[in-house]
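Q: I'm writing up a methods section and want to include an example of the input and output format. Could you take the sequence below and give the corresponding predicted structure tokens, formatted cleanly so I can copy it straight into the document?
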Amino acid sequence: MKEKVKVGKKKKGKKTAVSELPLAVIAHMPPLKKVDVPSYLEEVDIEALVEEEEKKGETAV
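A: Here is the clean output for your methods example:
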């Protein structure tokens, strides 16, 4: 990718909102392939999607 994306250290209890990431990055994140990428173009409760994935024991972000 042409743009450099800053990646901060993950801190427990602090989530990076998926909505803050560029769509190109979201589309290439393997854990999010289960979610329809076009749905991000609509208003979607992304935090709820993240929480659902975490409840399954998977890391969503």
